[in-house]
Design brief:
364 residues, Jelly Rolls, 3-stranded antiparallel beta sheet, 11 helices, IPNS-like_sf
Length: 364
């Protein structure tokens, strides 16, 4: 046992040397000092500890967000749906692969998005609120929505009509694909919300956010130039925290680590390029009566960020009310197998009864 071995090292049976009662000379004191030094050298060793295995080692796999193939989930594979429900119930997060958005498509979209990040200083906002690891990281962001007409005019004037058309087409493509993924996931989750969702007075629109992470040292020079940078690129109130969606879909260019704050502690997972990390937001947690756990996530930025910036895309999904009511009504109107069997028995009984009555009447 590790504890017994440790005790045998710490509590040696060899008695310590007797203390010096009276030192009559330097030679006698030196001899006793040598004996004491030899004793300490033999007894004072760092114990050879054999620590027990971590208590959480057997359950570590449960603390890693599950990775689900989107095609299996879309085809309503039972095992995929089970993994999805377990993950959003226990952790509030899962990963999606095989969703059809290629790495080349992401790279091309990010290259176009860089045009927005390079807009002149007076039109740019720099957020310095992120501190990841031991280094400060700044994050630039802008959002893309279907209803941002005023923003579209401003952006078109900044980058030119031709570049804007290319940018708009690629943004819309990513928007449509992520929306299709979110709707497929949402439809499955909404079917397991037992309580009907109250009708909302105002529809919320799904929003696509683009993030650019860079070293804060490079942003300090911009901040010292003036206060014009307090204006946001795309809108006067553009921030992911201002939007209340049901799901957030994060997708990254390149391999990345992802931190998830569950409220009970931090989780982390690795995401390959193109992997979508899906997190439950407050809206869905409220609709599910707390069954699905709301969490927040943030990437762990690579150390090479001072050389090459890191990019991420977040799609904040807000489903239309019609989708919720359709699923709720379908849930309410559905008839269980037991009820169907009971109805069939009643119909068979009534048929037999009326057949018997009819035969009696004909006999008379």
């Amino acid at each position: 046992m590790a504890i017994l071995r440790t005790q045998s090292r710490l509590f040696s049976r060899t008695p310590p040397p007797s203390p010096i009662a009276t030192a009559k000379g330097l030679k006698s004191a030196a001899v006793n000092d040598q004996i004491l030094s030899e004793y300490l050298e033999k007894t004072l060793h760092i114990p050879d500890l054999t620590l027990p295995e971590s208590y959480f080692s057997a359950n570590d796999h449960r603390r890693i967000p599950v990775e689900i193939d989107f095609s299996s989930l879309k085809s309503r594979d039972d095992d995929s749906i089970r993994q999805l429900l377990e993950s959003v119930t226990e952790l509030g997060v899962f990963r999606l692969i095989g969703h059809g958005i290629s790495a080349d498509e992401l790279q091309s979209t990010i290259a176009e998005a860089e045009l927005v990040f390079r807009i002149s200083k007076e039109k740019k906002k720099r957020n310095l609120s992120i501190n990841i690891g031991s280094k400060n990281v700044s994050r630039d962001e802008f959002f893309w929505s279907r209803s941002g007409k005023e923003t579209s005019v401003t952006l078109r004037d900044e980058i030119g009509s031709e570049k804007y058309q290319i940018l708009s087409r690629k943004m819309d493509d990513i928007y449509d694909k992520l929306e299709a993924v979110a709707e497929s996931v949402g439809q499955i989750l909404f079917e397991y919300i037992t309580e009907p969702v109250e009708k909302r007075n105002q529809e919320r629109e799904s929003v696509l956010f683009y993030y650019r992470y860079s070293s804060s040292s490079s942003s300090t020079e911009h901040d010292q130039s003036g206060h014009e940078e307090n204006n946001i690129v795309m809108s006067s109130s553009s921030s992911a925290s201002d939007h209340h969606g049901a799901l957030s879909l994060y997708i990254y260019v390149g391999d990345q680590k992802f931190h998830i704050n569950t409220g009970k502690g931090l989780l982390s997972c690795k995401t390959c390029s193109g992997t979508i990390v899906v997190t439950v937001r407050k809206q869905l947690e409220e609709w599910s009566q707390g069954k699905f756990k709301c969490v927040t996530g943030e990437p762990i930025v690579a150390q090479s960020i001072h050389v090459n910036p890191s990019y991420a895309i977040e799609f904040m999904f807000s489903p239309p009310s019609s989708t919720l009511y359709y699923n709720s009504n379908r849930k309410i109107k559905s008839i269980s197998i037991f009820d169907q069997i009971l109805i069939a028995i009643i119909i068979a009984f009534l048929y037999t009864f009326f057949t018997y009555i009819s035969s009696i009447l004909k006999g008379e």
